[in-house]
């Protein structure tokens, strides 16, 4: 059985969601953040990088949500929520699956920028990051005006990968999506999924550590 090492308010909630969508058994081990919002030493001891999500499957412990999602879909779910390599939308699936990493990196860069900096290079970087997020969000909005889901007509792991930047990050100072009607409708559509609702109740940003 897969163990999900869940760090509170982190991208590890997407792995809980994936498992709920697939109906696969898992064990959840919860770690609260420290007052400075860093992961506690016990979480950092799990892996040399110890980013969230981190999972264990047998003797293998590894991080990186993109790798974890592909591993679960292909190793444990028989390809469910993935797209076959000979499917017409396979390239779309790969693109949107990996898009989440670029989107999250740009969102984090905007959140870390100092709008009052007097350092000209930092100001250039902050402007470039904001422009990049705007491009990514507009790209999402266009895509979701032509397709109900990112990889095509069916819900897939690509959707699981991208929701965090659109839902949790704005709660903590990330860019808003309110000006993007297709993205807003998409978030509402995804948020209505029973598996998503279960996962957010278990490990979402408002969830709390279950009582022992």
UniProtKB/TrEMBL annotation:
Pfam families: GST_C (PF00043), GST_N_2 (PF13409). Residues 86-212 form the GST C-terminal domain. Residues 1-80 form the GST N-terminal domain. InterPro entries: Glutathione-S-Trfase_C-like (IPR010987), Glutathione-S-Trfase_C_sf (IPR036282), Glutathione_S-Trfase (IPR040079), Glutathione_S-Trfase_N (IPR004045), GST_C (IPR004046), Thioredoxin-like_sf (IPR036249). CDD domains: GST_N_GTT1_like. This is Glutathione S-transferase. The lineage of its organism: Bacteria, Pseudomonadati, Pseudomonadota, Alphaproteobacteria, Acetobacterales.
